[in-house]
Request: fold
Amino acid sequence: MDETTFPVIETHGLSKSYKDVTALKSLDLRVPKNSIFGFLGPNGAGKTTTIKLLLGLARPTGGEARVFGLDIVRDSVDIRKRVGYLAQDPRYYEHMTARETLRFTARFFYSGPAPAIEARIAETLDLVGLSDKADRPIKGFSGGERQRLGIAQAQVNYPDLLILDEPAASLDPQGRHDVLEVMERLRKHTTIFYSTHILSDVQRVSDTVAILDHGQLIAQAPIEELLNSSGAPVFTATVKGDVADAQARIAGQPWVTAVQATPVNSHTHWHITVSDEATAEVQLLPLMLAGGGVTVLEYGRKKVDLEEIFLGLTEGGHHG
Reply:
């Protein structure tokens, strides 16, 4: 099988127990090439255990896994040469600058001419948005800047896979935004597998998401599929004017199953559940406006929140 077609990470029944505690139960994962794969779950769900197994830092109790088609137990040295890894809480020599830190890291991977290494370091600093801070000591860096430097360190050897453990967990909103932006920028260079417990981050940058809870995989799908899988489509609208006629007109359609109206100040908020999304997309807005007495202030298909799905799955009583 050609390496461009098989998954970058594939696990079958991968499990890990420590004495009498099962940290990971029979995990089956598939991470497609050049995707941003969000590995989501509460703290203690087994995310870091999975990462340790993939990197050969722990041995599985059962099952198997392949990274680039290579076995994680037999070929772990070869796998690690092609992987960039950012641990949950990176530590630095505080007196060193960002450039010196990358130079130190690059020495493990490159033995070529110094100008080529320096060019690679400059390119990596630019990629994570740290060019202007490159020669300042790390001790003055914010949390977000430290994480971006960590990603730069993990990325300096052009890895085919970037594994990031909770890259935005302890950051303020600006820091998280910057880190997610860097991840989006890196997607054309590599495949990114990152663990997180922050749902909104997954919704912002991932293509595919796997949800882990109590060491067990409870969902794995492209994010759009997961967001669209939760029941009947719903459209929402905020309207004002002569809403009673329009509401009756909409409610009378055979493809409308429910209209919920909530007064908000001088407006009305509609929550319209439909059985036929394609028809609704074409006809719903014209129907609202047909009588001429209604002004539509906001309108769209209701975005399902990953949080609702996550809570529904993790509280679904699937484990004892």
Remarks:
- The first strand starts at residue 9 and ends at 18.
- The two ends are 40 Å apart (CA to CA).
- The mean pLDDT is 89.
